[in-house]
Amino acid sequence: MPKPAKLPGGAQTIAERHPEIWESFTELGERCAEAGPLDAHTRHLVKLAFAAGAGLEGAVHSHTRRALADGLTADELRHVAVLAIPTLGLATAVRALTWIDDIAKTRRAPAKRKRR
After folding, report:
1. Which domain holds residue 24?
2. Does 3 map to a domain?
3. Which InterPro entries match (predicted)?
4. Backbone φ, ψ for residue 66 (5° rounding)
5. Are residues 84 and 30 part of one domain?
6. C-alpha distance from residue 37 to each of 3, 31, 54, 61, 67 (Å)
């Protein structure tokens, strides 16, 4: 069985100590992704929304990293947090925005100047 790629903290520990469990977990994720009609772009946004709504900082960071790597924009990810305001509340949305920006801030494009 190949050694798992470098993962964040606890996930890496599970993958190293229990590679068969990690392999099954990874396969479950793949099967869930293939089970319906949503495209990869939409799946990234939905998974980010789940992580933000559940208050999982590490998962928000992870889904933000993966979404950016797959070509989604930081503004698309931030929009997920803004959409949370009426359902989850302003505090939850701000928390999610902060976590998204923890990762996305290093990839921000320079701000555009307003025309006068």
Report:
1. 9-38
2. no
3. AhpD-like, CMD-like
4. -65, -40
5. no
6. 31, 12, 24, 25, 18
Q: Tell me the per-residue pLDDT of 86-114, one tens digit each, with 9 for 90 and over.
A: 999 999 999 999 999 999 987 554 444 34
User: Which ranges in 1-116 belong to alpha helices (H)?
Assistant: 9-17, 19-34, 40-54, 57-69, 74-83, 85-88, 90-104
Q: Containing H/E element for 37?
A: none
Residue indicated by tokens 């997920």:
80
In a domain, 2, yes or no: no
Looking at the structure of the chain, the number of domains it has is 2
Q: Supply the pTM of this predicted model.
A: 0.81
**Could you tell me the CATH number of the domain that includes residue 86?**
1.20.1290.10
